[in-house]
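User: Is it possible to get a 3D structure for a protein together with its bound compound? The compound here is calcium ion. I've pasted both below.
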Amino acid sequence: MNIVILAAGQGKRMRSTLPKVLHPIAGRPMLEHVLTSAKALEGDHQTILVLGHGGEFVQEFLSKAAFQVKTALQSEQKGTGHAVLQACDQLSDDPVTLILYGDVPLIQTETLEQLTRLAKSGGLGLLTQNMANPTGYGRILRNQDGDVSGIVEEKDASAEIRQITEINTGFMALPTEKLKHWLKQLKPNNAQGEYYLTDVIALAVAEGVPVYTTQAKNDWETVGVNSRAQLADLERVWQRELANRLLEAGVTLLDPSRIDIRGELQCGTDVQIDIGCVFEGKVVLGSGVSVGPHCVIKDAVIDANVKIQAFTHIDQATVGAGSVIGPYARLRPGTVLAEEVHVGNFVEIKNSDVGSHSKANHLAYVGDATIGKKVNIGAGTITCNYDGVNKHRTIIEDEAFIGSDTQLVAPVTVGKGATLGAGTTLTKDAPANQLTVTRVKQISLNWQRPTKKSK
Ligand code: UD1
Ligand code: CA
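Assistant: Yes, that's possible. Here is the predicted structure of the complex:
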């Protein structure tokens, strides 16, 4: 099969230097959504993307993305028929050609399969929709038998035709050889002076090629984006759809209209997610995990029964089963927590392993550290991992107790069961099982507070 994706339009109403098809829905360019749905189609297919405005940005996106796509250039936008014509030379002999749109991002593979099946018998498959307000769309004409006889664009339509509520979504599956032949016959004799792809329908009918129609399961699949407002609306629609899928899979969402998934969120059983959370990249939440309000979680694996409390930020980290994180905790890339770890408010952990049952409950920075089991890290503890040029590692062995307001000047090791007194600045290794403390001796003096001078 040939898949032609039209993406040459300027998207003037976006008022952006970024081509319209690269604007994101759920964190991924609209074009990527279309390419993903197309890629999942059964059988062999080649994809030809018709580029125009901002084509170089789209090429750049393609060079980084994992899609096998050919491109065709439409340097002047003379209509949808003219756009498909630019891909004509690259169409293979495969019997079916499917037409998609880079700015209609939410089309589902299932619908495209449905449409393709209609064209496999040599006919033309058309995706239509019934709309209460069909203003702006091409209208589907049918004869007395109910068979499609053509499409009339809004701007070319009589008042009577404008009453028709069945519209052309633009998605079509056509017999390739016929398509090539029809495209060459298109003429721009219409209100917009454009080469309309939709005119191929009347040509097909004239040649006795049957036109079959089908409809998408969901209205949002065929919604196109022309402005930032429409983009924002479609984002909400898609987020609600993703939320519905989670609900169906058994996830509790305290408010399904207040969650944002910009990637892939995989959940075990009985997961609960409070409002205002953002999930990015690939996130796995194990069974029994609860996520408090307003957390941002990106590329992370959270094991079973972890409790993530409000306003926590997790990026490229792994959290072991039964751990409690937050509120206001930050786990940065390379953090690996074992089971039953507690990380409390205003604790930042980066590129560190933390053993099971260890705790850092308040106000600490742990960077480039290896922390054993049952370690207690007091409030105000800081690993001084950076000397201004290089990063160094801090090792804290099992059952060590780090007193409050301690600085560990790396590289440094705290032995098993060692205790560091509050306020210690550790520059040399602390031996196991001993108390190490660096502190000026406490003194008390007689002291008279100054009194306020009278004027
Ligand atoms: C088109 C259909 C109309 C349908 C509507 C659905 C035609 C003639 N009309 O109308 O029946 O109801 O879509 O939204 O096909 N494009 C190019 N190059 C061009 C022109 C368009 O690549 O020269 C691309 C645009 O980027 C866009 C798509 O084709 O992705 C549709 O173009 P647009 O001008 O929005 O079509 P409509 O006039 O809305
Ligand atoms: Ca147009």
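The two ends are 95 Å apart (CA to CA). The helical segments are 30-39, 55-64, 80-85, 109-120, 176-183, 199-206, 228-248.
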